[in-house]
Amino acid sequence: MDAAEKKRKMIIGGVLVATVIAAALVEVDDEPEFHVPEALQSGRTAQDRAKKNESNAAQLDVSKLGQRKFSPVAGELFASTTWVPKRVVIDDHEEEQQAIRMAQAARASAPPAPTAPPLQFKYAGKAIADDETWVFLSQSGENLITKLGGEINDTYRLDSVNDDAITMTYLPLNIKQTLTINNQIAGTFR
Q1: Non-local CB neighbours of 180 within 8 Å, separated by 6+ positions
Q2: Residues 103, 104, 106, 107, Cα dihedral to 10°
Q3: Beta bridge partners of 156
Q4: Structural element, H or E, at residue 151
Q5: What's the CA gap between 175 and 159, in Å, rounded?
Q6: Do the beta carbons of residue 176 and residue 169 sit within 8 Å?
Q7: Residue 177 bridge partners (DSSP)
Q8: 137, burial (CB in 10 Å: exposed 0-12, middle 13-18, buried 19+)
Q9: Confidence at residue 174, expressed as pLDDT on a 0 to 100 scale
Q10: Residue 156 contacts by C-beta under 8 Å, 6 or more apart in sequence?
Q11: pLDDT tens, residue by residue, 45-93
């Protein structure tokens, strides 16, 4: 064996001895310490221990602990939950009053009935030919000609014409409207 190999074996052997010593010390320190209870140290027997337990039981009055009270609500693990309010029973007079209040509230909150827009026509004149009356109107610079029963822009229908007024029907709502005629402005063609 040469010197290098001898040195290596010495180091390995030293490390092995150090490991064994460390393991022995750790095992000695980790051993639990046992404490012997006073009852065993004083040499008491099983009969003495039984008497001591009986005296402890006599001191503990179980009836003073109280009884568990059963609650049926707490016992219903799978009870259903609803968010609908419970209906309140009302006598007939109150029910009538409530129905009236609800109807009034519905009427107050209902939107107003739709109405026809104001007439935007200006009377320009009329002509009677072959027992047909033709009316000349203007709207926003556009001249319109229609006869009795005829429609204007698929929105109005000409119902009647007399010397004082023209009666038209607003077709989307079927509402009759009147356009007054001022004979001083427009002439009459015959």
Answers
A1: 164, 165
A2: 120
A3: 152, 170
A4: strand 151-152
A5: 12
A6: yes
A7: 168
A8: buried
A9: 92
A10: 168, 169, 170, 171
A11: 666 666 766 666 566 666 666 666 666 656 666 767 778 887 766 566 7
Tokens encoding 49: 């221990």
C-alpha span between 41 and 20 (Å, rounded)? 37
Please report, as a single letter, which amino acid is at residue 129: A
pLDDT of residue 91: 65
> Tokens in use for 40?
């065993």
Q: What is the pLDDT of residue 85?
A: 81
Stretches in the chain below the pLDDT threshold 50:
29-30, 186-190
Instruction: Say if residue 36 is exposed, middle or buried (CB neighbours under 10 Å; 0-12, 13-18, 19+).
Output: exposed
**Burial environment of residue 123 by CB neighbours within 10 A (0 to 12, 13 to 18, 19 or more):** buried
Q: For residue 170, count other CB atoms closer than 10 A to its CB.
A: 16
DSSP string, 49-82: HHHHHHHHHHHS-GGGG-PPPP-HHHH-TT----
Q: Rg of the Cα trace of the chain?
A: 56
d(CA 64, CA 58): 12
Residue 151 to residues 34, 53, 116, 140, 159, Cα–Cα distance (Å): 116, 112, 16, 17, 9
